[in-house]
Fold these 4 entries.
Entry 1:
Amino acid sequence: MKTILKIAWRNVWRNKLRSGVVFASVVMGIWAGLFVVSLSIGMMDQSKRSTIESQVSHLKIHSTEFIKDEKLMNNIDPSTLTALEEFLNSDDRVKSFTERTVIDGTVTTAHGFKNVKIIGVDPEMEQLVTTIYDRLDTGSYFSQVKNNPILIGRSLGDDLKLDAGKSVNLSFMTIDTNSVSIGFKAEGVFSSGNGSFDKMNVFVKRDDLNALLMCDNYIHEFAVMCNTIEDAALLADAINAQFPDIEARPWNVVSPELGYTDEMMGTSIMIILLIIIFALTFGIVNTMLMAVLERKRELGMLLCVGMNKRKVFIMIMFETIFLSLAAAPIGLLISWATISYFGNHGINLMDVEDAMYQFGYDPMVYTKLDASVYITITMMIMIAATISSIYPARKALKYNPAEAVRAI
Amino acid sequence: MIVKLAWKNIWRNRRRTFITISAIAFAVLFAVGMRSMQQGMEEQMLESIVNNNMGYIQIHNNGFWDEQTLDNGFYADEIPIDEIEALSEIVAVDKKLETGTLSSNGNISRGTFVMSYDQTKELPTKITNNITEGTFPEAGKGEILMGEELAEYINVEIGDTIIFLGQGYQGATAAGLYTLSGTIDLHVPDLNKIIAYMTMEDLQEFISAPELLSALLIEVKHPDRIDETIKDLESIVGDGFEVMAWYDMNPELKQTLDTSAAKGWIMNFILYMIITFVMFGTILMATQERRYELGVLLAIGMKKWRSMVMVVIENIIINIIGVIVGIAIMTPISYHFHSNPIVIQGEQAELMESMGFEAVIPFSIDPTIALNHASIVLVISILLLLYPILSIRKMKPVEAMKL
């Protein structure tokens, strides 16, 4: 056995060209498999993360009545409010949270009106939770306009011919069911990446809104970001257990379609991975078949001098195993390098010139992969490579030594 | 003479020829297969979203899209529907009517978005798959189907009576009593709180405007030729109506599909790298294997350029055969998976179905896929002939003939 190992090892080095091809096939297979998976994961992650950061947050907390009916008076009870603030401040899973007043209202300009959700925010707290401040197309984030500033979405602005610096009227009901109509000044126009979110939501300062509603600290909604997304469900359970009259819902309950996309991508990744492994296997089979053909004389010679068929078979298998063992670390290294590079710099999937994607939509995808996946896929490729050398090796055994040795 | 030699060479070493042909054929098979699958998925995603919600094209009264009220609706006889249906591109024309109203039970009430379905047509799977209790309303019975959370909120159960109160067409007051026939869960909580369905006849009666419609939903034969179809439709319906394509009404879907196509191209690029390598490996080993033979030819005085031409001719013939074999194998496979798509199993399938997607991955049978990708493979395989050409150029007959 030791001799066979030695012969196989020397064979690998003797014909460097042939070894190079098999070696490179395995390297490329590992790289392709890993890169495709990391790209798919990156894409899923990107759309999810972008929606969570700009709109959904990791969890949202409302009063139980508010979830059923988003009415003005279904706010969070002041005593619960203080207790909840304390709870969130002391829980170390919480990264940041913000408190909002959320009411229904109408935005009116000379060009028409739209029903919207008016969200009153504390600009500083909000900045720690959502990325709206970073997604302004024009204007600024609650810093320039002194009196009643408002942030509106890009698509709402287009509909109402509204831009930063222009004035709008907001009308809504106050607590004593009086209807008010007040002038606001558009300070900025944001694009969250979701056109219908932009059309249906406007942001104002919570203090301004509470003053107009004639109340103080009237909070309907908490939006919370956790340190990791996995904490969201646990934290929601903890809050729900402690506070009976409010309900905390994690992102996948608030916005179930975000969870679905994960599921739907899974199958297509598996199929593509299979195609790649299959193509690679085929490539190795083909190269090795050609190699066996080319080595006809050499193998015939070995058979003639008395090496038995089993040993020839084992020798060819060992050659492939050596090559894939050597290729694995190189393939891993190249994969790791490209995945980290595109993980930092991103891949641009869209033509940036295209007007449709100028606002809000993020066409950059950042590749990403868990360490365990690196190992699994590398193992899969190595196994595929080894298996694919069985058929050519068996072919070699069919040679008639006397004829093969005369082959030129 | 060279051509003859090349032809004989192809048949002389059949095994080598066979291996090379199979490499090219498989390259075509993989490239075409992967793209057919991707394109099939994209086509299906578009089809199910578009069919369930909005049609490829919608026609409404001018101004309806910006302000979706009943007063911006139109009467069915204002548009020559027969003429539209007669266009060769049009598969079906569906009528749509929807409006907002207030539904109440006792002193609980909530704003409700009422959609209606033309009872003469089959219900979309998005509805039939998601009815949680009861049935879809039948025509003339004054029945409604409500979102689960809406029914729960106004506290009604199947068989209970609900009061609808709202505004009808052109300011008329609309009021009516309806029986709850079932509940539906559309898997979008915000929608479940406001949605209700009834038959078109009942809804038209409620708003006291028989034959009033909000939109015509149009299904087309070739989604890729939608721009021309829109022009045809515009000339039929005239200036008083707006004809909109799905991508104007739902730019987010267009973004999703474009992103998916861009990703498809990256995947294809990676697959092509592997394919190129497979072909290169094969041609490299094939050249190695015949070094001796080529060395002999050179030694007996054949000019190098002649032997190069000979190898190139041989390989081009082999490549073309390979490409044809590849297409010949792939076409029936594509057709098979087009009519018997890969079925997704388990929990994932349920999720997809509940969202109105069919849980299958069909293959596209667009003939341009095979044509484009087979040509790409052919071009790559011809470029790879540089290797044997270069190796003949460097070849020294004496060394080549050493064993």
Entry 2:
Amino acid sequence: MIEHFLVGFALLLGLFGGYLIASSRWQGKRSERPEDVRRILLPFTGTEISRRAVDAALRLARAESGTLMPAYLAAVPKQLPLDCAIPAEAAKAMPMLEAIEQRAAAQGVPVDSRIERGRSYRHALARLLEHETFDRVVVSATATGAAGFSGDDLVWLLDKAPAEVLILRPGPSDEARLTASRA
Amino acid sequence: MDRGHYKIFLGMAAGVGKTYRMLQEGHAEAAAGRDVAIGYLEPHKRRETSDQARGLEVVPRRSVPYREVTAEEMNLPALLARRPELALIDELAHSNPPGLEHGKRYEDIADVLAAGIDVFSTVNVQHLESLNDRVAELTGVTVRETVPDSVLATADEVVLIDLTPEALIARLRAGKIYPGENIQAALDNFFRIENLAALREVSLRQVAEDVESKRLTLHQAEQVGTREERVAEEVPKAVGERLLALIRPQPSSQRLVRRAWRSAQRLGTDLDLLWVKPPGKPIEGEVERQVTALRRLASVLGATLLIEEHDDVVAAVARVVRERGSTYIMGGESLPARGLARLRTPLPQKLMRATPPGVDVRIVAHRGLKDGES
């Protein structure tokens, strides 16, 4: 009787040990799994971004189980080297990227953000297009030219971007902007 | 011979009143019975400044032919021969024309101080070498006449002449800084509220750091050597925090880097980013993409990305902490432990044991959604 109990106990112990080892290995593999997902690029400048553009990009990312790639475009003054550190621009970008990440997290969308430098916003975008791959670009057109991308920029983007470009036309809800202070 | 006492009046831009204040203090010293002389004054055709200089002896300038013009420069030999107790020397960042004793006026001032003469001088913050790039980034204007930061560090006193951007612009509009025909150009270019606000912040920070470093240096009373050596060598050790962020080539690390950078900015420290790479694993595919993204982010932020190949994360981190002199370690949250991993000692505790005493370990929470947000 005692022998049967001991054998049974040993069997249970072995099974439990096997489970622990298997689960810890699975955990290791889980963290190393490469991400082969669709990427939605959301370029922006300045300290605010159209909430409509963010929401559109998030809807797309969620529908396609993709990753949102918000990219802050920074213009480096011509007196400075293009690859110099830009703490003042970075300080503007950080809260915006945090705000977008918060909004994305609320909808369960993964985020992989960027800050890109260039001599102008368009140049920064061109550099981003050169070394990153993505499936869609979401940009917000602007009627005022004060924020977002100008008509020329959008024509240029349609010509150059190796991805589908979704341009949101200016609308009344553009007044609702995502700013760092709201995050 | 004791070195003279050195006082610098620091401003965020032309027109804040550095020279005026220097002259005011010169008058006060003269009224107190001291022998005061103006070594060099640049009133920029400002009547208030010229009026303030009245009553103070001026050591005549010397004419120096340069290219096809004649420059009026400070006469260093004459000032040294005159030997006042206190010399007022405007614009320490000025570059001298070739042929004079030194290339820069701050070097002339060093001679005056070495002769035991006290010096009051002036400088704008954008002339400081380490801030030149930052100021250029903020304002789009690059200043060519720069001075090493050590010049400020060697001053016995640094006085910030502070003025709100609005007040400075009001002075400019009233014609108190530039003649009428130049006012609009100045308003359109350098003298914009956002530029001046940024410069003011840089100036305030600079003086705060200077005060902090001098306060700490005062505690090193038993030190030997000159004051210049003490400031140059001991301040980095005394106030030199260094932050090390432990990252992995994955998107969530970007957020950790941003948090670490913001902390580093608040502490005024340098930031290192460390990825301990498992040995033998090639950097390719998604990993390569993420490493490239982190490298670019590090470059934007002025941080240093380190990749150490090691099979023991704790040992590798401990070595880097010792080599780089890190005082803070920041890491992200680990995945919830499963299986046998539950029995292991958590990484932060291992790091606390393996790193030198005095190194803080901080875990950055995954703040996916703040409380109360929808």
Entry 3:
Amino acid sequence: MYRYDEIDQRLVDERVTQFRGQTQRFLEGKLSEDEFRALRLRNGLYIQRYAPMLRIAIPYGLLSSKQLRKLAEIARKYDRDYGHFSTRQNLQLNWPKLEEVPDILAELATVEMHAIQTSGNCVRNITTDHFAGVASDEIVDSFVWCELIRQWSTFHPEFSYLPRKFKIAVNGAVHDRAAVAVHDIGLHAVKNEQGEVGFRVLVGGGLGRTPIIGTEIRSFLPWRHLLTYLDAILRVYNRYGRRDNIHKARIKILVKERGADRFREEVEAEWAHLKDGPATVIEQELQRIQARFTRPQYEALSNQGISTEGPFGAWAKRNVHAHKVPGYAAVTLSLKKTGVPPGDVTTDQMNAIADLADRYSFGELRVSHEQNLILADVRQRDLEALWREARALGLATPNIGLLTNIIACPGGDFCSLANAKSIPVAQALQERFEDLDYQHDIGELDLNISGCMNACGHHHVGHIGILGVDKNGEEWYQIEIGGNQGNTHAKGPGAALGKVLGPSFARAQVPDVIEKLLSFYVSERESEVERFIEVVHRIGIEPFKTAVYGNADQRAARRREPALAA
Amino acid sequence: MATLIKERRVVANPPSLPEGEVIRLEPTDDPAAVAARLPKVSRVEINFPKFGDGRGFSIARLLRERYGYKGELRAVGEVARDHLYYMEQCGFDAFLLRDGEEVDDALAAFDDFSEAYQATVAQPVPLFRRRGAA
């Protein structure tokens, strides 16, 4: 954990005071709905379908057991005894009372937490690889850079009223586990030939209704220039990003409309003025931040064999991950148990997880953008004991990377933007494909569900993506295949957007369609190690289309009959 | 009557006519286009047509930091107490509050935050360079 100093703490406290005043002015009728919206959103507060929703920041997904206990306490006291971990590594409460939110923020501040900039037209929570600091393919510890950027972005006076929200992801390892290509800015740490650290800078990626893979505007930005370069990009965006149409206001549209070359030239021209200015990063600051992070005091251990037998072996195979320190492993606690909305945890579970973190992983944990929790520093010899406890808590479903590890937004059950529900679809799929042998046979598969085209469930980058659509007031589901969040594997495609298979389906049909896709994949794969996504990229989507809808003749015939697919 | 705040004080009776030339910039205007005139003007006004339109913040910084403007820089338009801290950090020193803003509350808003992480016009040395020196 990064531990606040006196200034960090004071700023968070001052924010609570500021928001308390804003809430009061709104309740007294001194702030209009529209204006209060702009202010409450940047404190994570939405007005949802049934109640407000509060999105609490978990900067770059890193959380202490103490903080998790506080979240449990808040969820119990102010909400309905559970919380929802989102794909942006944050925690959402679905039932707080508007007038109590300042009190919730004050409680959060006591454990160095807040809801700053978790929504609104400003720089959002910085996200990163959930294996930062422990991955064997690490180039830099991305947490340090994320904290540097967090401070730079917090209450940035020039960039607090941007055209639209702004998401930055940092990846510090060889493999991209932070989906940098689908962020407004993606920063991928690299080393040059001299061994110096810098960043590859991608701009204008994003999901939502106009999914785009980000464009590289710099192949190597030396680390000292990181903040001045971010200032330059944001200034170009702040000045020229569209403000006439909310759906065209993200930076990706600006990059697209201007063309990557012209956009790059503008950024470089702006940066020429800022480069080597006072915002140039200094070594001393990196060391200061690094020193304020608590670090595990690892024991000198050696790697030991991990059983592959029985239920423990099945869990270890999927939910235990390599660690750069001998004798240690990272463990994913799955929040994707069948019958539970993806990412949901009860307060009892939160407290129990905090205990597990204290006993097995130095009192810290991470939230992954796949909506699971990670204990990053577990002794290999403790794995079996941890597994038993996690299993008793319903947190040991051995499905990480598999079909039922579904990413899903809260959807129409909660969200007022949604066109369709996503949680019941996820649950139907988890029930249909609960059989673990079948899941293991299918192998690694990302299945993502969004309840509307805003794409909070990242359906564009699921190997299979499901999108809820509204047709004349009815809920239908469009299916995409071939999306990929990034070069997570040595083999297979890099970041890619899924392609729509064809006409959409009724909710009840979705499990059958997925089963058809999977059966066809199994018949087409060259070996058991060739993943679904690799097959899609090798043979294209047409054969899959035929497997689901029949060939062109069959499709034409079906159109003359009452539709299966509408 | 909208209140004018200048250098954190209410200007009780603002003169109706400015002494000298005034430039008014809209969010789409390029400050580079007026750079040559800046030494002669007595005031630059930047308009904020909407509560959420933040382009004026960048324009202000450019005027101060790139074009060296030293004179009065006044925010006009939808200027609410919630903007004041940010505006001052970006180099504004005068603020024509929109109608309905409470003056005392607005004056307190300059102190919403006691410190900024970033390099700003008000504090050109970012916090991380000052923290290290302490």
Entry 4:
Amino acid sequence: MSNHQPIPEDDAGQDAWLETLIVDPANSNNPLLPALQLLCRRDREHKKRLNRLLRISDGYYALARAETDSLLKHSNQQIRRLEKISRISDRYQQSLLEWNEQLRRAALRDPLTGLANRRMMIERIEEEQERARRRHTDFTLAMLDVDYFKQINDTYGHELGDRVLCSIADAINSNLRNYDLGARWGGEEFMILLPHTGLTEARDICARVQKALAGVKLAQTGQTLNITASIGLTPYRGQEEYTQTIDRADKALLRAKREGRDRIEVA
Amino acid sequence: MTMNSLNIEGSRSTPQILCNADTGVISMRGDAYPENSFEFFHGLIDWVAQYLVETTHPLVLELYLIYMNTSSVKAMMDIFDMLEDAHRQGREVAVHWYYDPENERVVELAEEFREDLTFPFTISSVDE
């Protein structure tokens, strides 16, 4: 061997060095030359194969990545869609709840006067009865009927009569405490529920309502109508059914009517 | 093959649907909370798909919808997506959503539907 320079460290340098050895005329008779040539050829083949393999597997990797990306994009779209569906659906549900609440309110109110109706009053009386039974509290019911209301209708017509009824309802309602409940029971008849209230206090409240009714005016002319009302008043007793209480209030009211109206009868 | 018109009678829980193959107008009226919404909307979705493939005419949706349950919301979104695809391919499509002025909440709902869509989508009161 004529060439004794050190073997280069990098691939390209080594290739060049091998090449120089092979073509060097000084090595042309070296018996190992064909073997070296064979090894170099094989080495080149292997490198080529390795590169091809890498390129192909890189291709597969890119493919898989693209697929994942598209799946991810697709699933993000689906999530967005689902979110949109839920948002819209929630809004519909919210509307339904509101409609429901409106209906519920409408179902418990007297449409003319806006006072509670019979159904709402019964519900509240049932609750009060429960409370009275459990905690031995008391409550009082007043049944109120406007005296000679037919005359108002006959004199001023039904439309004005209805407006007077609304003023009467306001007069009753504004003289109650906020935990009392006034309801239109029918026609010109009203029911008043006074929770945690004994007879003496109840009587005072009823008198206050009567006084307010006396001041009700005809909206158009401002003329005072001198409205009076008869009232039957009764406390809830012991373990009785509330229907008995209502019944008693009714009878007391009848008595108030018979005894000349514009008065409170207690039973 | 010629397109047939499609008429679906309305009921308490399903809207009336009229698909006119001659005018390219679909109108839907009423509430939508069918028991089986897949089955109910199947016919409409097929009709729209067929119309978009077999004709080149414009397609207009006129909606007078009030209440919709969740699966009906999804079905409507599917239909809007079909229109959006067609629109992106140059097809003339539009949605006109009409609401009762007594029920302004429907506006917000329709706006929510309209989000992300690029074809003409109007929301107006039936009075206008």
